[in-house]
Specification:
five-stranded mixed β-barrel; OB fold (Dihydrolipoamide Acetyltransferase, E2P); 3 helices; two-stranded antiparallel sheet; elongated; alpha+beta; 7 strands; single chain
Length: 119
């Protein structure tokens, strides 16, 4: 019986660790805003609706904001693959800051690595 108990405990631990790892990689935007140091430099995936898009002709990047219902975050794109306003997207990218002032991050954004536009 103790062998079965060990097996169940090991299985439960593995499932718990897997769930924690998934949460860290797929946070809500409010989690990014509330805990910027945890996610700084980490690859994350967010899903939401594009609320605004900015781009300047002849500049090799564009910006857009994604809202997942818990908040908004700015996404920096290299200019290829910028979604339109109102599109439902899944973005994978690295969490970065523009600067650090007094130990606090300023200008947190996600540098887009991949983009999936959902229909």
């Amino acid at each position: 019986m103790s062998r079965m108990l060990r097996f169940i405990a090991t299985l439960a631990l593995a499932a718990g660790l897997s769930a924690c790892a998934t949460t860290l990689r797929n946070p809500h935007i409010v989690d990014l805003r509330d805990n910027p140091r945890i996610y700084q430099g980490q690859m994350v995936r967010i899903e939401g609706v594009v609320t605004s898009v900015w781009g300047i002709p002849m500049v090799p990047f564009s910006l857009y904001k994604v809202d997942d219902g818990t908040g908004e975050v700015t996404v920096l794109s290299d200019g290829s693959g910028t979604p339109r306003r109102g599109a439902r997207v899944r973005v994978r990218g690295r969490v970065e800051d523009v600067a650090q002032l007094g130990g606090q991050p300023v200008g947190m954004h996600i540098r887009q690595a991949s983009l999936v536009v959902r229909r």
